[in-house]
Recover the amino acids of this structure.
């Protein structure tokens, strides 16, 4: 960073202005406790005013009556004008709401870094860097021999560790290493939660830029829609969008949630982790809530943008109708004024206008030539049994079987289901499984996994189909996981 970049940040960055503000301790402590520590992504104005009023009363009673003389609402409006709070009206609400901006979290993060720490761990971060370098180096390696060599090296290390454990030699992680890794985990978890707020802000900035572009657009509507839709797709195709959706899909897995909860409980029960951050006990649920709010923001912005485009189209259509009515009025005025005979009369209510480009181009007819000189004479009798050997698969028994299998669990794979209830009607029954539609479950396709399904035809021949992994998941379980 050079001098000009630092000077530009000093003049334009809300986080920099916050650190230099007179009431910075009040802003950081109050907004940090309400929005960051509580993971709140929006609060009604009346409630926030009440909570700030209580905070000001306590501070004035302890520091002096004139320490903060202004009303709580005035402070909130001032903070919103400086870019430390976002003041908005949710759909269908007539009361303003407030939400903290990423500038507050950045200032809080810098402020917390100034605090002295009794224990500063470095070993876990070095291990993490080695793991990241190894993942990048071998994850981008296209040579199968190199990849196999790395996998074999990791296998040999695991086998040696297994042998040591079997021999009674168990290497335990000491208390300092446990505290080191817990600090790194807590810091990374909080930073990840703060990133969701910045991602949501980036989406709002992109939506604002699109609206400004639509307002000042002078080209055709088709070019505008192409440009707007291209930018919308750019959100999902960008590095930030891909990373966000990959993280969100990973976190929605019920197995991952259960594993994460179990690991958190085991870590918090360790004696070495004496200083426990209370937010870490439910941090993955905070991630889910923040991710869902970000997804809801993107959906809301898309709906608002669609209504904005509809309003623009309505205004254009209204302008066209005004022009047509002006032309009709001019024609009636000229008729009454006795203009020179420059037209003609027609026996119709309105003329039929056919534009030149609406007429289809001439297409010569295709002449089909038939050659029946070598036609073979069909026999009078032939085997028509193949016409009657049609297979019909009733989907209702298959749908009922899936429902029974999901009564005591949230999901079941197609391979396990076929193993319980073998296929009896061949490939047609398998296709019927893939096309089932029911309100109690949904079908999830995993392109990363592969399954082999086996069955025997009526004549006893074995059939094997290799296909992507297919899972039937209960609708209520999926909705509960998303909540």
């Amino acid at each position: 960073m050079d001098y000009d970049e630092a000077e530009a940040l000093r003049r334009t960055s809300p986080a920099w202005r916050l650190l230099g503000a007179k009431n910075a301790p009040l802003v950081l402590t109050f907004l940090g406790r309400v929005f960051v520590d509580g993971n709140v992504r929006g609060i009604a104005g009346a409630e926030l005013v009440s909570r700030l009023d209580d905070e000001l009363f306590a501070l004035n009673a302890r520091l002096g009556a004139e320490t903060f003389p202004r009303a709580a609402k005035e402070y909130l409006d001032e903070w919103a004008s400086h870019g430390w709070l976002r003041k908005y009206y949710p759909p269908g609400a007539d009361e303003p709401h407030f939400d903290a901006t990423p500038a507050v979290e950045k200032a809080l993060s810098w402020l917390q870094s100034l605090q002295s720490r009794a224990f500063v761990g470095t070993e876990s971060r070095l291990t993490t860097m080695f793991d990241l370098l190894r993942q990048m180096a071998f994850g981008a390696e296209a040579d199968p021999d190199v990849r196999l060599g790395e996998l074999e090296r990791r296998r040999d290390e695991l086998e040696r560790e297994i042998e040591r454990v079997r021999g009674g030699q168990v290497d335990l992680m000491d208390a300092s290493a446990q505290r080191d890794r817990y600090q790194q985990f807590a810091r990374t978890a909080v930073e990840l939660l703060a990133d969701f707020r910045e991602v949501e802000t980036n989406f709002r900035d992109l939506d604002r830029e699109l609206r400004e572009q639509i307002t000042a657009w002078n080209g055709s509507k088709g070019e505008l829609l192409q440009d707007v839709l291209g930018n919308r797709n750019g959100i999902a195709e960008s590095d930030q969008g891909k990373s966000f959706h990959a993280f969100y899909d990973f976190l929605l897995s019920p197995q991952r949630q259960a594993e994460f909860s179990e690991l958190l409980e085991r870590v918090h029960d360790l004696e070495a982790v004496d200083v426990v951050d209370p937010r870490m006990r439910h941090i993955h649920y905070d991630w889910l809530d923040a991710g869902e709010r970000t997804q809801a923001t993107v959906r809301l912005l898309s709906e608002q943008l669609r209504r904005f485009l509809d309003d623009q189209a309505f205004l254009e259509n209204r302008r066209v109708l005004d022009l047509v009515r002006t032309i009709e009025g001019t024609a009636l005025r000229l008729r009454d004024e006795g203009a020179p005979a420059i037209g003609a009369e027609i026996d119709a209510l309105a003329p039929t206008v056919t534009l030149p480009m609406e007429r289809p181009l001439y297409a010569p007819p295709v002449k089909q030539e038939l050659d029946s000189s070598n036609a073979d004479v069909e026999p009078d009798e032939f085997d028509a049994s193949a016409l009657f050997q049609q297979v019909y698969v009733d989907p209702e028994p298959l749908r009922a079987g899936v429902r029974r299998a999901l009564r005591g669990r949230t999901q079941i794979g197609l391979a396990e289901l076929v193993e319980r209830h073998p296929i009896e009607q061949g490939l047609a029954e398998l296709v019927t499984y893939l096309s089932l539609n029911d309100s109690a479950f949904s079908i999830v396709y995993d392109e990363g996994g592969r399954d082999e399904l086996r069955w025997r035809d009526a004549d006893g021949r074995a059939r094997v189909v290799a296909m992507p992994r297919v899972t039937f998941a209960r609708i209520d379980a999926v909705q509960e996981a998303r909540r």
About this structure: The radius of gyration is 34 Å. The mean pLDDT is 77. Strands lie at 43-44, 85-88, 97-100, 411-413, 441-456, 462-474.
